[in-house]
FAD-binding domain-containing protein
Amino acid sequence: MDFVASYKMTPVNRAKTHVIRRGTNPLPSPAPSAMALHTVSGIKLPPFSLPPPHRQLGANPTGLYATSAFPRRRCGAVAAVVRCARRTGKRRYPSEKKRLDRRHKEQLRQTAPEEGGVAREGGFWRLSKLAVPASDDPGKDFLGVSPPLLQAIAKALKFPVASMLPEEAFSVVRKSFDARKILKEPQFVYTVDVDAKKLLDMEPRTWDFIARLEPKIGIVEYMSDEKVATDLISMLNVHSDDEHGIRDTVNNGSISPTRMKPRVAIVGSGPSGLFSALVLAELGAEVTLLERGQPVEQRGRDIGALAVRRILQSESNFCFGEGGAGTWSDGKLVTRIGKNTDGVQAVMKTLVHFGGPPNILIDGRPHLGTDKLVPLLRNFRHHLRELGVAIRFNTRVDDLMVEGGQVKGVVVSDSNVQPGSVDQKLSFDAVVLAVGHSARDTYSMLLRHNVDITPKNFSVGLRIEHPQELINNIQYSELAAEVHKGRGRIPVADYKIVKSIGEGDVKNDIEQVDQNRSCYSFCMCPGGQVVLTSTNPSELCVNGMSFSRRASKWANSALVVTVSSHDFKPFQSHGSLAGVEFQREYERRAAMMGGGNFVVPAQCVTDFISNKLSVTTLPPSSYRLGVRPSKLHELFPRYITEALQQSIMMIDKEMPGFISSEALLHGVETRTSSPLQISRHKETYESTSLQGLYPIGEGAGYAGGIVSAAVDGMYCGFALAKQLSLFSGDTEAIFGKAQKQTGSVKY
């Protein structure tokens, strides 16, 4: 049958005909007869014919099908570079996002009970992203269920009368403050757990609404049991004989009388060292904790002498001592490894057990402050000693005792004397290396034993300081009056900034090649002060710290730029320590700019951007040892300086007023994270090049902050206990899979 004769004017065909009539052919017609249209009853249809032979063969002798949209590449021409979006967690291809959404929905379908089912009478529902306007909320220090929050819960449940909902059926899991400019007004954002059984017992009329509740990823999620994390101590004691085998089930958690306890040395009393010591001691190991610095009581006096009399104790300062560098800082507890994971929750609950405020379990951006960390560490120390841990302060590890490629012990000396003068050898079955990123002499010692160390990226820059009132006004506008130096309803304003300096924006002086770099805020301390973190009088570097209330009149933050091994080439003669020498070079330059005596070089932001030094009288600074007007724009290589300048101008567009005559830059910030990584096995945490050595924490390049370092130490404690036959369970069954860290946290 002829196709034209059988063509019917259906609605679909009528639409197709309309397209044919109005459509145009983008290619020029080779001949009028080839494009002739058949006409039947006024309907024009294209003929069904094959393309010309030369098109089938891929040839184009006449240039008929060449268009200006696809020009032929000439000899010697440079091809255009097409860059694809990087596949990260926040930017995914649409097909990948759809696939993830389908997988998440399937997981929800499998875990949540069927709609209207009897199982919905029990269990817990987690409601997230419940927004309460800041004007209606009781404030940042109220962690209960308020009437405005009940209104948000009723809206999520689609329950008509919020006042009928019993407060006892709800518990606040997370509370954060959101003051982004895209919102109509600032708001507190809650995550709340709903006890379905208690809610139905107290208000049966909510059954229809619970029965129709639909799970949504990140909004409404069902849990058969309440997810209640416990502290590490309770976990190790209460579940000593459970199915996870937390203790040696053969001996009911004790060591056989005929078998000696394994002896473990832990070098460093920072978060990773303390938590690994806690796990190993609770599981029955004989632990010795070696700390080159002083306990927090004496360390506080040494820091006071530095701030008042400019006396720097090389082994007891802002970097070295009980608790590590984080003790005298802002005490941030934010982390990128998952704040709701069991491992992180165990660490947070343990901090509360030792005296941390309970609000860190709920606060969306928790922090402790130095005044809370000092008594917490004192309680931690007392508990370790009750477990039998031998804690030796003022003891520096100068060398390792190695036999046949295996660590047999350590060589220690008094921190007040030169290495090698009065040595003592201590034998151990294993050595956990939990030093901080400022233990540069330890890195050199490891290289003498051919320990596998690789340089890694880190960041350097300057610390910027503004009046806190200015930051409050920029972030909160009229709501800034509610801050009241940390005692008001609204939290003290902070900021978190990440800027990408695109390719071609910044020139690298080393290779004259373009390179993408990130500039970001690091360790932002609202209501804080700038402090000295040098460990050598000839080197100068700074950091920020604050107390729990954040009541200071200044706000400071590091603005740092990423650097990589390409930038270390002038120091490549130092091998794996090239990044360390890169840090030291600019710390020495800063010390010379400041003129010595721990005076910090400083420059107004307006001058720094203009590459000049016109202001000789600087605005007030929180740094107590003095500042000196300096040309900080000449301190770093040009590619770092230009990246900082461009980032500051980009920040000012988002936060008008950030560039201010009151804003002051301090130099330098170089110790954002470890400049190297000590290679280790993923499962056992043991060094890949030296048996019996277990590098962990921030100094080893596997953490970046208090919480991630503590989690790393905790996992290492269990891994080592398993090798020492003190632990027979599965750590992942208890805490989940350990998160990989590279040692850099962007606050």
